């Protein structure tokens, strides 16, 4: 059990978006910073072990995590395409590199990135949701609604 930081409480003030995203980017609870949120690499616990925060707020909640994961995976492929175009322009098309290696890198990136990024997409989406929910009440694991 992690104690809330100074200036925050488990059900009161929330940390800044930057701090929540920083915590989420290392798979920690965006709200309290507690670790051990995952039972396995892919399986997120229902509640934070530190602050009891319920992650899946409603049915379809993880659609946002899917979008985060999709944007990151497509961004990685976009960067690879940009590198390919830049290289082609830099050599003015004189260097005949293997197009197959670029295609293989693109396919590997498109497949591996969303798998590796999957747990991060969940904690990042939880951070975004906490930031956006504003005055929405918090619900603990017992279904009790609490306000700051
Ligand atoms: Zn927490």
TrEMBL record:
Alphabetized UniProt keyword annotations: Membrane, Transmembrane, Transmembrane helix
Positions of transmembrane segments: 62-88, 100-120
Designated name of the protein: DUF983 domain-containing protein
Annotated organism of origin: uncultured Acidimicrobiales bacterium
UniProt lineage: Bacteria, Bacillati, Actinomycetota, Acidimicrobiia, Acidimicrobiales
């Amino acid at each position: 059990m992690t104690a809330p930081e100074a200036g925050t409480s488990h059900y009161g003030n929330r940390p800044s978006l930057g701090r929540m995203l920083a915590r989420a980017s290392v798979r920690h609870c965006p709200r309290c910073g507690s670790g051990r949120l995952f039972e396995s690499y892919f399986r997120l616990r229902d509640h934070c072990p530190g602050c009891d925060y319920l992650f899946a707020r409603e049915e379809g909640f993880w659609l946002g995590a899917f979008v985060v994961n999709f944007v990151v995976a497509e961004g990685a492929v976009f960067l690879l395409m940009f590198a390919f175009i830049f290289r082609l322009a830099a050599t003015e098309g004189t260097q005949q590199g293997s197009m197959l290696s670029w295609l293989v890198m693109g396919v590997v990136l498109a497949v591996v990135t969303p798998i590796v990024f999957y747990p991060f997409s969940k904690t990042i989406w939880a951070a975004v949701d906490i930031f956006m929910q504003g005055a929405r009440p918090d619900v603990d694991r017992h279904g009790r609604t609490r306000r700051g």
